[in-house]
Amino acid sequence: MFTFALPKGSLLKDSIRLLQGVGLDFSGFLDPTNRQLQILDPTGTARALLVRAQDVPVYVEYGQAQAGIVGEDVLREKTPKVAKLLDLGFGGCRMSIAVSGESRYRSPLDLPPHSRIASKYVGCAREYFDSIDLPVEIIPLYGSVELGPITGMAEAIVDLVSTGKTLKDNGLIEIEVLYHSTARLIAHPLSYRLYSDRFSELMEKMQIKA
Amino acid sequence: MFTFALPKGSLLKDSIRLLQGVGLDFSGFLDPTNRQLQILDPTGTARALLVRAQDVPVYVEYGQAQAGIVGEDVLREKTPKVAKLLDLGFGGCRMSIAVSGESRYRSPLDLPPHSRIASKYVGCAREYFDSIDLPVEIIPLYGSVELGPITGMAEAIVDLVSTGKTLKDNGLIEIEVLYHSTARLIAHPLSYRLYSDRFSELMEKMQIKA
């Protein structure tokens, strides 16, 4: 049985649409009354697990799912041991540095040493500020990172931006884009080698549909 | 201005009720249409920030909030530098080890060395298994930890249990309780010393209402 790990949240709808395009129907996950975390495709040939986006690479790395769909942002942050197969094109967003519009910072180079940077992406934030040799204090947050600069706890944030509405609503401005992120098809390395024909077929169909 | 950090989720309602009992009204956060992350009490004497439970100690540690309400489970996992003032009594739950009901494990001592343990509470899980000198592999997950044993990825989970319904629905059984958790009042250490009279008054009122 081929198992896909699918991410809850913003990538779910497009992920299910993509899999429908290759003949696998997991649309039951889109039913608001659904409480199941795993469902079978009606043809009985594949299964899907519905997990948090950050958990998708975990299920794939441990081989509980042979394939998964997840944002590049999660892969960069967690660096899991998975095969990255395809850029699926959807779910486009960017990892950005943002500051309060009222601050005088207009570039990361304006930030003073030992600035406080709030982020859910601690690894990515650390890597970037190391790369410009600026010592900063990273404050790990789990949500509503925009409160960091608003409350005066942090000079800047490193966060994922899609439309930019949240930043705007909170009076924040982007001063740097670290990278662009889209949804990726990933695979358990051993499964990818074992079922190379099946993966080739899947990827070919996905590339036509994507 | 005195600022409280309040946790989104299961402790919010009781936290707001408790603060209403001491004359501070932040019930605006309970309005389902509310999108504000900070509100003022109508008397204008205090402010509240609405943040993720795991972020409450961060805002208090950095002094952006003078006080906060958060579960003991978060304090044990993150060990933030905050003053723990009161056990508020509500939000009772327990940190437990659970396994599939179909497994033969009925005690943590039955788990074989190098078992895989899925958990959102990596620090707590690590500490417990170190304490019984059992080498295990901790698999960090962000949500739906119960999928760990169901998919065969993990022998056991370490997770917060309140009613036990999620475990039961997923065929899991508790084999050990690590500790019991309730909501706590925490304070920024410096603020606690600076505003000791205000904190004493607050705690006295809370103890009567709790």
From TrEMBL, chains A, B:
Its main location: cytoplasm. It catalyses: 1-(5-phospho-beta-D-ribosyl)-ATP + diphosphate = 5-phospho-alpha-D-ribose 1-diphosphate + ATP. It is an enzyme of class 2 (transferase). Transmembrane segments: none annotated. It is found in: Cytoplasm. Its EC number is 2.4.2.17. GO terms for molecular function: ATP phosphoribosyltransferase activity. Keywords: Amino-acid biosynthesis, ATP-binding, Cytoplasm, Glycosyltransferase, Histidine biosynthesis, Nucleotide-binding, Transferase. SUPFAM superfamilies: Periplasmic binding protein-like II. Residues 52-207 form the ATP phosphoribosyltransferase catalytic domain. It holds the Pfam family HisG. It comes from the Bacteria. InterPro entries: ATP_PRibTrfase_cat, ATP_PRibTrfase_CS, ATP_PRibTrfase_HisG, ATP_PRibTrfase_HisG_short. The keyword Nucleotide-binding applies. Pathway: Amino-acid biosynthesis; L-histidine biosynthesis; L-histidine from 5-phospho-alpha-D-ribose 1-diphosphate: step 1/9. Lacks the C-terminal regulatory region which is replaced by HisZ. Catalyzes the condensation of ATP and 5-phosphoribose 1-diphosphate to form N'-(5'-phosphoribosyl)-ATP (PR-ATP). Has a crucial role in the pathway because the rate of histidine biosynthesis seems to be controlled primarily by regulation of HisG enzymatic activity. Heteromultimer composed of HisG and HisZ subunits. Belongs to the ATP phosphoribosyltransferase family. Short subfamily. NCBIfam families: hisG (TIGR00070). This is ATP phosphoribosyltransferase. It comes from Pseudanabaena yagii GIHE-NHR1.
